[in-house]
Design brief:
Blueprint: H1 2-6, E1 10-12, E2 27-33, H2 36-53, E3 57-63, H3 69-77, E4 84-86, H4 89-97
Parallel strand pairs: 1-4, 2-3, 2-4
């Protein structure tokens, strides 16, 4: 999985990392977001509980100021270090159009909700752009 993640950056407008790595393998994930209280809330609500439930996974929180410049530079250089990036909708669309982000297989890469709802049906309407 790490090799696959190193070959592409992918974005998602809301952090949803469940299902990305199994607890059977040690994986470091570099999750990039906006910093401050926003990232702190993500760490408390998502990262810490996920790492506790999956001891082989370490999530590194990285702050950035938005935009596509850093992602574009990583993609063009072939030295991608970010695994998951929280972007605004316009950057998600542009990044997809430019081929910077890889598709997320909603059936195989995203865990079902606690009630068993498939991920593709568990987001607010309009929040998942496409594959």
């Amino acid at each position: 999985m790490k090799k696959m993640l190193k070959n592409s950056v992918f974005a998602i407008t809301g952090i949803a990392i469940a299902g990305m790595a199994s607890s059977a393998q040690a994986v470091d994930l570099n999750v990039v977001s906006w910093g401050g209280a926003y990232t702190a809330s993500q760490m408390n609500a998502y990262h810490k509980p996920y790492m506790e439930a999956n001891p082989g996974v370490k999530i590194n929180s990285i702050d950035y100021s938005g935009g596509l410049a850093e992602m574009r530079a990583q993609t063009e250089s072939g030295n991608v270090t970010w695994d998951l990036v929280d972007v605004v909708l316009s950057d998600a669309i542009t990044g997809c159009d430019e081929g910077m982000f890889r598709p997320i297989d909603m059936d195989n890469e995203m865990a079902k909700g606690a009630d068993g709802t498939p991920a593709c049906q568990d987001f607010l309407e309009g929040r998942l752009l496409s594959e």
